[in-house]
Specification:
heterodimer; A: 5-stranded antiparallel beta sheet; 32% helix; B: mainly alpha; two-stranded antiparallel sheet; 68% helix
Chain lengths: 305, 272
């Protein structure tokens, strides 16, 4: 769905995106991670033909960008750096104008426009929003309107930049469920975010951008592979510590971190010695740990970009 | 896309406010003239004002002459300067482009909507001027009226009508130079205010140079040089020379500036 080769963008002497090879496959929910200023937004803008690449190639749905932008982008729904709308018009009027924009090929058919707009608004939970102008919308409502605009054409590929920004926890949950439903219906989703938790809950594949370079791109499950250690929570922590002498790497109250990746054997051993176990399981790296390890000590650099 | 831009333009409260203000100034002038009966002496003040006291039919043209030097260009620069930069500022430009709307197509649609604005504004100013003038200043029936031309001979009402239409066309075309300048700047900056002000700065600069004798060599090429030449349309016979030069000069400005706007906009990184 998205493939780039050695994609590079320089602004003067600053290399914002440095030789990035993205590979987003059909059916992915791809999490595009990176700190603020790591080049995520510039990459997304290049994918959509807004910013011209300095060098490298982009393919979107198998077509070259920006050359084929006019033919491809009508199958892509996107939200880039927050929603935007004309403040003096209602949400519905905004969607109607957007839907009527573009070449004859790109714009939506007029006869069912009202229905499609109503459907998109329903999808994002703005069905009953009425006629008030967008300037009176809350941040969350604007975000939902932006999503509705991206969904208006039932895109094959959704490119979303921080889609849950400004939403309350219920709203975030709703949008996550909506994205999962869309994904189940066959939409490929490219989600750019700096919220690791959001990506961890949603995505099947991740790419991590650090200072313009794509430092990792793999299945989420691979990044979260077991570490070969087992987490044990037991009220008899001291007894367990004595029994497992030398294998315990770390103790924090009732919780022990034990070397060895076979929880079943460990459980049998502990119970066999009369040690009660609350909880026991293989330790997995969280996405956060994985990303922090990969980006190294320089993630909280202060030079700023 | 053109239809969308026209809808956007004419659904905006600002569009009608500026047009309302444009119409208000000649109306105020007409009311003052009607009440006081004191016109500027011939040769002073805005063109035609001394002529309209005896007959309101010419007030349509007088109204154009009143708003042309400053009010109309300001309104045109504001609307045109906002066309691309305003979308950039609101963040809607990126959503239009990824819709996708081709950049050339968007620029053309914006240009046409600005043109429509200019035309509507000019026609409404002339129309308001005509009705206000006839209501307040001229009360002879139109059919029997003959109006004195700038040259002193008489013009029939038919001649006046034709010449007024040509004048409207000429003023509209003159304003396209301003529109093209503001549109070009609008593709350069993401601030609509800067684009409008930049275009106005050019006009003020041009007007200033026109008053200085030392800049005589430059004057035939200044964008505002022939703006008021539409008055020549009301001479008898029509003095075409400056009108045609004005059209040619504006044509060059419009062509070059639109070319620059296109070249800049179609290759630009949209980071707004």
């Amino acid at each position: 769905m998205i493939a780039t080769q050695a994609l590079t963008k320089r602004f003067g002497s600053l290399t914002a995106v440095d030789s990035v090879d993205l590979d987003v496959r059909a059916g992915d929910i791809y999490g595009f991670l990176g700190a603020n200023g790591s080049g995520k937004t510039t990459t997304v803008r290049m994918l959509l033909g807004l910013v011209m690449a300095t060098s490298g190639r982009i393919e979107l749905l198998g077509q070259p960008i920006p050359a084929a932008a006019g033919r491809v982008l009508d199958q892509v729904g996107a939200m880039v750096e927050g929603p935007a709308a004309y403040g003096h018009l209602s949400g519905r009027a905004n969607l109607s104008l957007l839907d009527a924009s573009g070449s004859r090929r790109a714009r939506g058919a007029g006869h069912d426009r009202a229905d499609r707009i109503a459907e998109a608004l329903d999808q994002v939970g703005l069905g009953g929003v009425g006629r008030r102008p967008v300037k009176n919308y809350s941040l969350g409502m604007r975000q939902r309107l932006g999503l509705a605009a991206a969904l208006l054409r039932k895109p094959r590929l959704l490119v979303l930049d921080e889609p849950t920004n400004g939403l309350d926890p219920q709203g975030i949950r709703e949008i996550r469920d909506l994205l999962l439903r869309l994904h189940a219906a066959g939409t490929t989703i490219f989600l750019s975010s700096h919220l690791l938790a959001e990506v961890e809950q949603l995505c099947t594949r991740v790419g991590v951008l650090d200072r313009g370079r794509l430092i990792v791109q793999s299945q989420l499950a691979e990044l979260q592979a077991p570490t070969g250690r087992t987490l044990v929570r037991t009220p008899d922590a001291s007894a367990a510590l004595a029994l497992l002498d030398g294998r315990v790497e770390h103790r924090d109250g009732e919780t022990l971190l034990v070397r060895g990746g076979d929880p079943a054997a460990l459980n049998a051993l502990l119970v066999g010695h009369g040690i009660r176990v609350h909880e026991l399981g293989p330790e997995r790296r969280s996405l956060e740990q994985a990303v922090l390890e990969l980006t190294g000590p320089s993630t909280d650099r202060v030079e700023g970009r | 896309m053109i239809r969308v831009e026209l809808v956007k333009l004419f659904r905006r409260p600002r569009t009608w406010m500026t047009i309302g203000l444009l119409d208000a100034l000649p109306t105020i002038v007409a009311i003052l003239l009607a009440i006081t009966g004191v016109g500027p002496r011939p040769g002073q003040g805005p063109a035609f004002l001394s002529a309209v006291l005896s007959n309101g039919s010419l007030f349509a043209v007088a109204a154009l002459a009143i708003v042309l030097p400053l009010f109309l260009p300001v309104a045109v620069a504001v609307v045109s300067g906002d066309s691309i930069a305003g979308e950039a500022q609101a963040g809607t430009l990126r959503y239009l482009l990824i819709r996708p709307v081709g950049r050339t197509r968007l620029l053309v649609a914006k240009l046409i909507s600005v043109f429509a604005y200019v035309l509507v504004a000019v026609v409404l100013v002339a129309g308001t001027g005509y009705f206000v003038g006839r209501a307040l200043l001229g009360n002879q029936p139109l059919s029997s009226v003959s109006v004195t031309s700038v040259s002193g001979t008489s013009l029939t009402s038919g001649q006046i009508a034709v010449r007024t239409v040509i004048a409207i066309g000429y003023v509209t075309f003159s304003m396209l130079g301003v529109a093209a300048m503001a549109l070009f700047l609008s593709t350069v900056t993401d601030s609509s205010l800067s684009a409008s002000m930049g275009a106005l700065a050019l006009l003020i600069g041009s007007s200033l140079l026109l008053t200085i004798d030392a800049s005589q060599a430059l004057q035939p090429y200044l964008p505002t040089r022939y703006w008021l030449s539409f008055i020549d349309l009301f001479r008898d016979p029509i003095l075409w020379r400056n009108v045609l030069r004005g059209v040619a000069l504006q044509g060059v400005y419009v062509g070059v500036l639109l070319g620059a706007a296109w070249a800049n906009f179609t290759t630009k990184d949209v980071t707004s």
